């Protein structure tokens, strides 16, 4: 059976690097936990790092975090759906918002529950995902400040996640100016300028982060050591905190080119093959993970002599070449994954979740 592992030592080292960087610049930061899909044992591992604030985009995951440690400050990091308002107020101390009508519902729910719900208002800076348009900002804040049960604690923005718009000094300066404008206009203090995510970290190292940006939400760089801005890995950070292991369920020498008329496959593709290889053969291994769990573009074997050549719903085919390593049925093949690959695997109920030290040899 396929399974994913988390290396706690490497995770702790990645966390330490980030925590030292942010502390050196007096920046608060929160861990984004949505990659973990609410898995209790992995959430506990993250909380054990000393995390005080965790962000997620699912109410059920925030509920799981509060069950582990109610003192963790939880942040719901997408505009709440109306049908989830009560859960957001109950399990999220803070939520990111862009709609006045939604914040009114949060206000009513907070009053009913006898709570003060904190909000960060997200501003549109070019990514065209969530965010209040800048020309509406003053009127928006004017209405929010009147609502009972609501405390406005921040202004923020999201970049890169959908269209890849990169953060830069000018965009983040704009965010800081809007914060100053609101504070001056309404004589209110806005503590957070939440302008940072994994992609923004290189701006700190290059001295390009405006001093007013004082809050980051970080997921990918913590788990994969990724320099998202430059699509590389940060020096002295680990990109293999997570690993995927899949068991070999068949090994055979087979032709390199399918035999017969080709139609659409499971993914709706009609594939083309080099007929010059029609007489050639190669060793192929089938492993017990497929498109239901992860797409082939988002994982690859650690061994450079192995290559994914196809997937169906529950199986993936690996080209072993001459199979010089002697791969056999029952062996485990190790894979590296990118962020979306890990997210898909973590969301799959068919994939076991382990810590790396729990991996044991195959036993018949």
From TrEMBL:
Keywords: Isomerase, Pyridoxal phosphate. InterPro entries: Ala_racemase, Ala_racemase_N, PLP-binding_barrel. One of its GO terms (molecular function) is alanine racemase activity. GO terms for cellular component: cytosol. Its cofactor is pyridoxal 5'-phosphate. SUPFAM superfamilies: PLP-binding barrel (SSF51419). Residues 7-225 form the Alanine racemase N-terminal domain. It holds the Pfam family Ala_racemase_N. Gene3D superfamilies: Alanine racemase. This is Alanine/ornithine racemase family PLP-dependent enzyme. It comes from Arachidicoccus ginsenosidivorans.
């Amino acid at each position: 059976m396929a399974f994913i592992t988390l290396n706690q030592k490497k995770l702790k080292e990645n966390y330490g690097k980030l925590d030292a960087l942010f502390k050196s610049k007096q920046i608060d930061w929160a861990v984004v936990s949505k990659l973990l899909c609410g898995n209790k044992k992995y959430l506990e591992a993250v909380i054990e790092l000393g995390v005080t604030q965790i962000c997620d985009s699912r109410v059920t995951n925030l509920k799981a975090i509060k069950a582990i440690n109610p003192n963790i400050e939880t942040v719901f990091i997408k505009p709440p759906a109306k049908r989830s308002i009560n859960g957001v107020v109950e399990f999220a101390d803070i939520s990111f918002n862009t709609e006045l009508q939604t914040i009114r519902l949060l206000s009513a729910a907070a009053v009913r529950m006898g709570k003060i719900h904190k909000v960060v208002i997200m501003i549109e800076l070019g990514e065209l995902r969530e965010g209040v348009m800048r020309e509406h900002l003053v009127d928006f804040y004017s209405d929010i400040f009147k609502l009972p049960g609501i405390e406005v604690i921040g202004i923020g923005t999201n970049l890169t996640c959908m269209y890849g718009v990169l953060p830069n000094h000018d965009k983040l300066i704009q965010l800081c100016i809007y914060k100053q404008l609101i504070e001056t206009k309404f004589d209110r203090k806005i503590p957070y300028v939440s302008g940072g995510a994994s992609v923004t970290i290189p701006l700190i190292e290059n001295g390009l982060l405006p001093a007013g940006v004082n809050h980051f939400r970080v997921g990918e760089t913590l788990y994969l050591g990724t320099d998202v801005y430059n699509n590389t890995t940060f020096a002295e950070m680990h990109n293999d905190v997570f690993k995927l292991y899949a068991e070999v369920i068949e090994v055979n020498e087979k032709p390199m080119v399918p035999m017969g008329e080709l139609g659409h496959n499971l993914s709706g593709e009609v594939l083309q093959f080099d007929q010059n290889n029609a007489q050639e053969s190669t060793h192929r291994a089938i492993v017990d993970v497929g498109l239901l769990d992860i797409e082939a573009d988002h994982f690859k074997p650690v061994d450079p002599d192995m290559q994914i050549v196809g997937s169906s719903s529950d199986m993936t085919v690996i080209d072993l070449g001459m199979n010089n390593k002697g791969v056999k049925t029952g062996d485990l093949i190790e894979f590296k994954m990118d962020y979306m690959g890990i997210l898909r695997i973590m969301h799959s109920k068919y994939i076991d979740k382990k810590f790396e030290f729990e991996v044991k040899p195959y036993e018949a």
